[in-house]
Amino acid sequence: QGRIVESGGGLVQSGASLRLSCVVSGLTFQEFDVRWYRQAPGKERERISRINGPSTYIHYSDSVKGRFTVSRDNAKNTAYLHMDNLQPEDTGDYYCTAQHRIGGHEYWGQGTQVTVSS
After folding, report:
1. pLDDT, tens only, 30-64
2. What's the rounded Cα separation, in Å, for the pair 109 and 23?
3. Distance (Å, rounded) from C-alpha 100 to C-alpha 83?
4. What is the distance between the alpha carbons of residues 39 and 47, in angstroms, rounded to a whole number?
5. 22 and 96 in contact (C-beta within 8 Å)?
């Protein structure tokens, strides 16, 4: 049974940086793609990043490209989302998911909140 725990959110000022962590347990982590989503208050959930098991495929949404960097350490069963130059529009709940590279169930974490003040 897979379990995902995100951490690293918080309240920061505009222009600051944060690094979110996503610890995955109960799964063969290197076989799973990791996705990061966020949901701003009153808005639909948005997928902002994806990284595959060997980190050979990385994708960002246009809204975060150039400011956010996704990475993973398979030895630690952990993925990261480094966020630079945060803006108020980046405020929201951030979620990490894991899905096997050939598909199937997508495991979700409980989310971590990011609030960016202007």
Report:
1. 999 999 999 999 999 999 999 999 999 999 999 99
2. 9
3. 25
4. 9
5. yes
